[in-house]
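Field log, afternoon session.

UNIT: design team B
ACTIVITY: writing a sequence onto a fixed backbone
BACKBONE:
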């Protein structure tokens, strides 16, 4: 494939110790040599080596920058094209100046995600791997990063290809039956077909079973902390944030806005929403906050309900218990350092079979138990120990579901002894759905849209 040479600043914008300008394409080395002066010309250096030198403006002969230049020759590169990476001193100005220089010497400014797109177009990675690259950039915990990494390594792709091969074999058998009906009785063909696609069906089910957890790892679990005023909600939020690396802090629009913070609880990313207390108030701004809090409760996938052990259970507490009855919840009995005033039996009755943990947030006690309870609610053995691969990408999940549906249709058709060519249509469609996951026959529009979500320089 003949593609032009592209360039972009590959390091994040802003100040840094170094910045990297990356070029990829047939002319990358030539363009490099037009502006680089060092011991050797870049065209003469070995692949995968790095070289000290200076960038000199080819027309003014002015020294632009002191640099380290890496030369990576096709095919063992990320894009499968020649790559030249110019390391410059950090700072927006110097990186930009070098980028302008390579652009004026014939490179074209890369679109967002175009390097990864090249890797895809040049056949180095498939679409699911490319999507993995994107997920890796965005992942919020190490575990989510691992899931994305497995995808980049092609684990999912291999599994999908195996399933496609199995379906193709089934299709081939039907083909034979259609072309040589005397070869096999139709009923025999249908029976064998059912066996073959049942195996595929089971594997798709297994993959889909990981989807819920995969999505949690990828997107984080929307978590609301609720409870009456003063029970310790803010203390709980702070404890979770302190005990864990806070990953992203959303800058709230106003001080009364719902505040969001990501924390990593035993590998499960929680998107914590401080609900500013679910209670009535006259203050209008405060009301907005409360409105949003109610919304947050509806959206929540996990609720941490805090009770004060130092006060008797109130009507409000009971109302909150009924408000959360359809939610995943962990009940936190806080302030256990103070004299117990709450009726624990009454609490247990309301909690039912949900986890109940006791804490003294003032003294940092009980947080480990709470974190364990959260992790076990969603992952039987806790995430960090689990070593399985997850389907986490929404597009993949949708396509797996479509494949599953068409296979079900094929099963039904076979059971009802429909003509084999009818069954074949369904099996072929399932094969196509799976193909879309790895980017086979993916429409250009989809590909463009996917890669445009990448950041510049990736
Ligand atoms: P919120 O209104 O529910 O957010 O509650 P806060 O987290 O702001 O806590 C209210 C008050 O209770 C603060 O003075 C905290 O220091 C105190 N507090 C929180 N947790 C504990 C605890 O476990 N024991 C004791 N004795 N006080 C606590
Ligand atoms: Zn608070």
């Amino acid at each position: 494939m003949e593609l032009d040479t592209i360039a972009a600043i590959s390091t994040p914008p802003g100040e840094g110790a170094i910045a990297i300008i990356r070029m990829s394409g047939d002319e990358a080395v030539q363009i490099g040599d037009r502006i680089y002066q060092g011991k050797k010309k870049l065209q003469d250096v070995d692949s995968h080596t790095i070289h000290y030198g200076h960038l000199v403006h080819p027309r003014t002969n002015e020294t632009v920058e002191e640099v380290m230049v890496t030369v990576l020759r096709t095919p063992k590169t990320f894009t499968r094209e020649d790559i030249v990476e110019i390391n410059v001193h950090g700072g927006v100005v110097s990186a930009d100046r070098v980028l302008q220089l390579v652009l004026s010497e014939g490179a074209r400014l890369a679109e967002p995600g175009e390097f990864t797109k090249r890797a895809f177009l040049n056949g180095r990675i498939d679409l699911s791997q490319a999507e993995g690259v994107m997920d890796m950039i965005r992942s919020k915990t190490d575990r989510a990063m691992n899931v994305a990494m497995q995808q980049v390594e092609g684990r999912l792709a291999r599994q999908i290809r195996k399933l496609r091969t199995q379906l193709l074999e089934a299709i081939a058998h039907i083909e034979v039956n259609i072309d040589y009906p005397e070869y096999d009785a139709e009923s025999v063909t249908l029976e064998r077909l059912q066996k073959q696609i049942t195996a595929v069906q089971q594997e798709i089910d297994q993959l889909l079973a990981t989807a819920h957890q995969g999505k949690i790892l990828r997107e984080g679990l929307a978590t609301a902390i609720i409870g009456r005023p003063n029970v310790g909600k803010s203390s709980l939020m702070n404890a979770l944030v302190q005990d864990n690396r806070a990953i992203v802090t959303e800058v709230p629009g106003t001080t009364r806005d719902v505040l969001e913070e990501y924390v990593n609880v035993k590998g499960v990313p929680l998107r914590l929403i401080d609900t500013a207390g679910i209670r009535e108030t006259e203050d209008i701004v405060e009301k907005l906050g409360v409105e949003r809090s109610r919304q947050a409760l509806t959206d929540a996938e996990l609720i941490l309900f805090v009770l004060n052990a130092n006060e008797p259970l109130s009507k409000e507490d009971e109302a909150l218990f009924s408000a959360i009855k359809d939610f995943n919840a962990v009940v936190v009995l806080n302030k256990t350092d103070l004299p117990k005033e709450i009726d624990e039996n009454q609490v247990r009755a309301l909690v039912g079979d949900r986890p109940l943990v006791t804490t003294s947030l003032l003294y940092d006690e009980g947080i480990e138990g709470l974190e364990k309870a959260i992790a076990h609610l969603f992952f039987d053995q806790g995430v960090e120990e689990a070593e399985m691969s997850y389907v986490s990408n929404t597009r993949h999940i949708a396509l797996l579901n479509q494949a599953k549906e068409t296979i079900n249709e094929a099963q039904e058709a076979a059971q009802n002894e429909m003509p084999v060519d009818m069954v074949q249509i369904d099996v072929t469609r399932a094969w196509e759905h799976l193909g879309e996951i790895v980017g086979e026959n993916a429409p250009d529009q989809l590909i463009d849209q996917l890669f445009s979500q990448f950041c510049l320089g990736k």
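LOG NOTE: The mean pLDDT is 81.
NEXT ACTIVITY: expression trials, pending approval
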